[in-house]
Amino acid sequence: MKVIAYMAQSLDGYIAGPNGELDWLEEIENPEGSDLGFAEFMAGVDALLMGRNTFEKVLSFGFWPYDKPVYVASNSLKGIPADLEGKAFLISGTLAEMLAVLADEKGVQSLYLDGGKLIQSALSQDLLNEMTVTTLPVILGQGISLFGHLEAKKKLQLKGSEVLLDQLVKTKYLLC
Amino acid sequence: MKVIAYMAQSLDGYIAGPNGELDWLEEIENPEGSDLGFAEFMAGVDALLMGRNTFEKVLSFGFWPYDKPVYVASNSLKGIPADLEGKAFLISGTLAEMLAVLADEKGVQSLYLDGGKLIQSALSQDLLNEMTVTTLPVILGQGISLFGHLEAKKKLQLKGSEVLLDQLVKTKYLLC
C-alpha cells in the first residue's frame, strides 16, 4: 500500500496559525475556483486516514468533501455522526496497526494520510511513501508545524514542481 | 535601495542543523558543479551585509567567495582579518541605521542581506524587499529556523519558481 500526504504549508512550514487559524489559505486569489488538482489527486486514492483533530475540522466545514471512505484514527471518539454512516469509519491502534488493517483487510492500495500528527508519525516511522506539499506565499511566523520535531533527517526525492494560480508552488516528493 | 535575501532551506524551514550543520547542503548530486545561479545573482547586487555568525562561517571556508564589498554587522568584532582589507568592512548600529549608511553614504542600490538573524530582523521591520529561497529535498526535523518567530504574518508575492539539478526548488518572492 502506498501512503501519501497532501498538504499546504506556509513558506516557514506551518499548516495552521498558533490557534489553528486557516484564514491564510483563503487569501490567494482564485477567481475561477480552481481545486488546485485536488479532485485529480483524490481520484488516485482508495481511502483516507485522518486524525481526530482533522476530522473535527472537516466537520466544521458543514459539508462532507470526500467521495472515498474516510477512516478516522481515534482511541477516544465513541462514534461517527449518523449522517456519515457508510462514509466515515472509526479506526484505532498504532499507526502501523491501522495501516496493516487498511492494506490487508480493506484492500486499500493507495491511502491519503491527512493530519499533522499522523504525517509526523508516518515520517518518523518511515511509513510515508509520497508527499505533495503546496507552499503558499506567506510567512506565518508562528503556528502549528507541518513536520514538527524529528530525531533524524529524512531525505526526499523531488518528483515534480508546478506553480498554481501564479502564487502557489506545488511540489511532489517521494521518500527515499 | 533594494534589500534582497538569498537563502537555502530544508523543506521544513531550517537553514542549518541544531549545531549549525550544513552537510545536508552538499548531499545533492551536482556533477557539473552548477553554481545554481549564484554568480548571476551576485552580478546584480552592489554589496553584501552579513552578520558576525555568517562572516565567521564564511571565514571557515578558507577562501573568500565574494567579489563585492562585504559589510559585517557587529558591535563586538574589533577588526577584520588583514587579508580581507578592502574586501570586508565592519559596520554597526541598528539594522535601519546600517541600511541608511549603505544606501546614503556607500551608494548601494541593491544589497544582498545574508544571515538568519539579519533576515529575521529585516522581515519583522518590513525592511526586506525581495527573497530567493531554494528548498532542498530534505526534512531536517530540527535546527536553526530561517524565519524564526514573527509577531505578524508577512504576505509575499511569487515572482518565479524553477527546478534546479532536478531536485531543488528555487523560488523568488517580493515582499508585499
Explain what you see.
The structure is a homodimer of 176-residue chains. The first copy, chain A, is of the alpha/beta class and 176 residues long. Chain A has a single domain (2-175), classed as Dihydrofolate Reductase, subunit A (3-Layer(aba) Sandwich). Chain A contains four helices and eleven strands. In chain A, the strands form two sheets. In chain A, strands 5-4-3-6-1-7-11-10 form an eight-stranded mixed beta sheet. A two-stranded antiparallel ribbon of chain A has the order 2-9. The first copy, chain A, is globular. Strand 10 (154-164) of chain A pairs antiparallel with strand 8 (138-139) of chain B, so a sheet runs across the interface.
Summary tags:
176 residues, 19% helix, Dihydrofolate Reductase, subunit A, homodimer, alpha/beta
Helix fraction bin of chain A: 10-25%
Measure the end-to-end span of chain A. Answer: 16 Å
Tell the overall outline of chain A: globular
Low-confidence stretches of chain A: none
Strand order in space, largest sheet of chain A:
5-4-3-6-1-7-11-10
Largest interface: A-B, 38 and 38 residues
Say what oligomer this is. Answer: homodimer
Q: Which fold name corresponds to the CATH topology of chain A? A: Dihydrofolate Reductase, subunit A
Share in β-strands of chain A: 25-35%
Task: Please give the structural blueprint.
Two copies of one chain form a homodimer.
Chain A: E1 2-10, E2 14-16, H1 38-43, E3 47-51, H2 52-59, E4 70-73, E5 88-91, H3 95-104, E6 110-114, H4 116-124, E7 130-136, E8 138-139, E9 144-145, E10 154-164, E11 168-175
Parallel strand pairs in A: 1-6, 1-7, 3-4, 3-6, 4-5
Antiparallel strand pairs in A: 2-9, 7-11, 10-11
